[in-house]
Amino acid sequence: MNEATTVLSTYPINLALIIAGAFIQAAMVAEEKEKNTLRGLLLSPASTLEILIGKSALSGLMTILVIIGSIIFSGYAVPSLLLFSLSILLGLVFYLATGTILGLLSRTVMETSIIGMPVLVIFGMSSMFKPMVENATLINIIELLPNEQLNQIWFGLSDGKGAADILMNLFILFLWVAVSFLLTIVIYKNRRFD
Amino acid sequence: MENVIEVRDLEKSFQNQLALKKVSFQVKKGETIGFLGPSGSGKTTTIKILTAQLHATAGEVKVFGEPIAKLKDPTYMKRIGILTDNSGLYERLSIYDNLALYCDLYEVEKKRIAEVLATVNLIEESQKIVQKLSKGMKQRVTLARAMLHQPELLFLDEPTSALDPVNTMHIHQGLKKLNQEGTTIFLTTHDMQEAETICDRVAFLHNGEVSLMDTPENIKTQQSTSSISLLLRDNRKVVVQKDEAGAKEIYNYMKVGEIVSIHSDEPTLGDVFVKLTGRKLL
């Protein structure tokens, strides 16, 4: 399977991560904000982690179901279940964290679609635009994005590569996860204040 | 008695406009304190700073003897209850389910739900969906939620503002019971009767400043006039001074059976507030 075919067959998985993971999560968090229920949770003894995990559980589960459906419908042959699952897990945490940030920054559920538009373009469509881009710096930047890391991991695995070959991609993806997670906690804690 | 809340020279400004000016007060354990003031006087700002929802611009705020920043610690959050101006209830859930969720968050047994619902007179409606409740009923559910974990310190921002007299009485009885069980209550209100009914001490907040803080009785006594009003048989109202001449005048009216009623002129808290600030409590 060449890179283009892999990108096409894995595109639904990437889209599932961004739409089901990030956007549903953003809408759920924004609704909590809009209806003032988030304030109640923020003022309760529940820890930040407990609330964030609780808030992400449903959208996380829905995303996994959509990914399974996407794999079935796109006919993508999962090459290494363990490494593929690990990449999905990292991607899921990143997109859920991104969705939480979007939800926390939006005042209403409606606003999440406006604020989320650049996120959808950058993290959802940049892989599609890459073949059209001629600027080397821009290509380098696109290649560092989490969706591109996921594509490279999946392409590598489909091409018969092992864990050692995709280690750098996993590491870059992990950095994205760490940064988005820390940013989520900082923004979340700031929402406690008016 | 130990202070549960200590506030010294608290200031808060919004875009260079001072909302609270050098506010200082203490609240002792077991007290019920009322912050009285009209809309925009700084009551909600005070409560938000005390519950760590708003940063103070200057001054020192301690709750349970610790700086306010500690309130973010889950152990401290368990010790306080908060009723804010917006309900924050899950609209698609029933009253019971809303409270059950908070039972889990505060590690309280579910049997407590029936107790708090009885206090706010909602025991019959426990299975109703919050979306279908009136504003007053939602306020009572929020109050029940704030009381659920029997907090040591309860912050109430205008707890009965949307309630009818019967339910207001229910809430007052519930708050008195909670206070007797040891809960310190800090409430804001512009209802002077509420303040007189349930508060041990009240503070008048006007333009971001505490102009007076004392027991309702002391405030009224200090501000009372030295006159007595008489209503006579011919519907005339006569005001006499509390002195020897006044006593003789009253005696003369009594001798001829002219007096229908007699009472000393004591101001209400509202009268005192208007006298001190020139503004009504609206």
TrEMBL record, chain B:
Keywords: ATP-binding, Nucleotide-binding, Transport. SUPFAM superfamilies: P-loop containing nucleoside triphosphate hydrolases. Residues 5-232 form the ABC transporter domain. It holds the Pfam family ABC_tran. The keyword Oxidoreductase does not apply. InterPro entries: AAA+_ATPase, ABC_transporter-like_ATP-bd, ABC_transporter-like_CS, ABC_transporter_ATP-binding, P-loop_NTPase. This is ABC transporter ATP-binding protein.
